[in-house]
Design goal:
181 residues; three-stranded antiparallel beta sheet; two-stranded parallel sheet; 54% helix
């Protein structure tokens, strides 16, 4: 069985990932998530299961608002900062550093000159790496513009799991305060 939220759900009480668990019944199965520490080691107070279908329904019902909130937070985060994508410039500097090292190794450059160049290039790289980088959200914008829910309903279980991993880093749940439904 492919669990949709495998490796995504974290127990808020202990910080441990929650593992998928199957409850077999006569004619159907129920799929839930339980804290790994509670399940295997009995070391966590969170012993309630989180139902996969209910969690999926909740996420589907609220996905558009989650994305909107994400865009708002990005807008607020970057409103006062002019951002640009520095990845090409950083790559060019690393290549320059590589060529400088080759020149030094071949004896074409004095050690003092090499040290100065190495410090200069590394300082530029560090400065660029510390600057805020533009976050590419085109995949989210494209998704919102389409009828993503119809597309989602046609996906296989495995592709639905990939869908969620594409947009969600982690889901924090407090099983003790989790309400059914």
């Amino acid at each position: 069985y492919t669990y949709l939220f495998s490796r995504l759900i974290v127990d808020k009480n202990c910080g441990c990932k929650m593992a998928g668990k199957t409850h077999k019944q006569k004619y159907n199965h129920t799929y839930t998530y339980v804290c790994n520490k509670s399940l295997q080691l009995k070391q966590c107070i969170s012993n309630r299961a989180v139902n996969e279908k209910r969690l999926e329904k909740y996420l589907l019902d609220n996905f558009d608002s989650f994305i909107r909130d994400y865009f708002i937070s990005l807008d607020l985060e970057y409103k006062t900062i002019t951002t640009k994508d520095n990845t090409k410039e950083i790559a060019d500097l690393k290549e320059e550093l590589r060529r400088t090292t080759i020149s030094f190794n071949k004896g074409r450059m004095e050690e003092a000159d090499y040290d100065r160049e190495w410090v200069r290039i590394n300082n530029k790289i560090k400065k660029l790496e510390s600057e805020p980088v533009y976050k590419n959200t085109s995949h989210l914008e494209g998704l919102i513009a389409t009828d993503w829910r119809t597309m989602y309903n046609t996906l296989t279980k495995e592709n639905k799991a990939i869908f969620w991993r594409t947009f969600i880093d982690k889901i924090e749940i407090d099983p003790l305060n989790y309400k059914k439904g």
